Amino acid sequence: MISIEKRKEIYEALNRIQGHELFKRSSTYSSLLTYLVEKALVGEDLKEYTIGTDLFGENYENDKNYGTVRSKMYKLREKLSKYYENDGKKELLIFDIKKGQYNLTFLSADTYFESKPRKGENLIIPIKHLKIALALLLIAVFSFFIVRTLITKPTFIWEAYFEKKAENLLIISDQFIVYEKMKDGKMYGVSYPEINNYKDLIQYTQEHPNKDLKITDYTLMSKMAPYTVKTLSKWFDFNDNDFHLQLESKLKYEDLQKYNTIFIGQYKTMNLSKSLFLKDSKVFSTFKDGFKYKTDSIEKLYNTKFGTNLNVEYAMVSYNTSESGHSALYFVSNNDIGVLATVRKFTSKIWLSEFQKQLQGTTKHFNALFEVRGIERNDFNCKLMELEVLN
Length: 391
Known about the structure:
This protein is of the alpha+beta class. It has helices at residues 4-18, 21-24, 27-41, 48-56, 68-85, 109-114, 127-152, 198-207, 224-238, 253-258, 336-345, 349-356; strands at residues 93-96, 105-108, 168-172, 175-181, 187-190, 213-220, 244-247, 260-265, 284-287, 290-294, 299-302, 305-306, 310-321, 327-332, 366-375, 378-389. Strands 3, 7, 8, 12, 13, 14, 15 and 16 form an eight-stranded mixed sheet that branches. Strands 5-4-6 form a three-stranded antiparallel sheet, covered by helices on one side.
């Protein structure tokens, strides 16, 4: 049983480490370290699968050799070692993770540094053994980088986003809000489907002169935004890259020329993105609260269905290349669960490898329609309904 005083000492040491340059700009490793400390305090024996499931998503498969957990643990050991060798060398309590293990232990400084080579000590190694060790080291290093490359190699639609110097922009749909003077003489924030930007506001007030409307300094977003940003942040962090953020209401044409873009949100709140979404499709179009699929011989309507408990909605994932040569990826539905479900699908390497098999030839561009079922705005089933492969 760890005493209250000992726990206080542990958390103080953890706070000092998280405030260091090695950790304060790396939320992934700060979160991983906190997780390991918390589990060590309750004495839980950790496995790779447990960490992968808790921290890296419900789709983490222990029997698939992705190495996400192993790679992160390896880097965490390096960061801790650098910390204790430099600015943290005066720490009395050491967080130690043995190689090949996932459990963190708390050691005294004396115990920790006893296992380290002392300065001035001479270690005599026979030349024969040194050559063998060097050869094994080279093989290990080469194998590590080969495996790491295979593990972190991005899946087909994400290649442009994960290049070293890639400039990426995540566009979040937001609902334009206006102030309206009501009968009580007070101004209230309201939204109109016809008003999605300042230009729409001007036109609407001209068409409805009896309404007293004014622009606000804020917009609204649904719960889809923070949850999806979190999922995509993890996905980009695992692939050593990042993205900028922009609201759809503030989006400029220059942004689309400069960045690889990802749009998440509702079609009905689109502004500039509306002219680009599905522009190359020969079979898909938006329809009421969903989508229409139409060929020469078939027409299908996929519209949101609200029930007492079960809701069914449709989400479109569209991938193409802009005129400037940048990648453009859209996750679009008119409610939360469609975007949430499809983003999770497309950040799973297992699912993506299966989806890629359905694309014909070597083309990457597509429009994919998904049916998402959920209860109380939480999805539990996401199924591909229609797929259009673009040339």
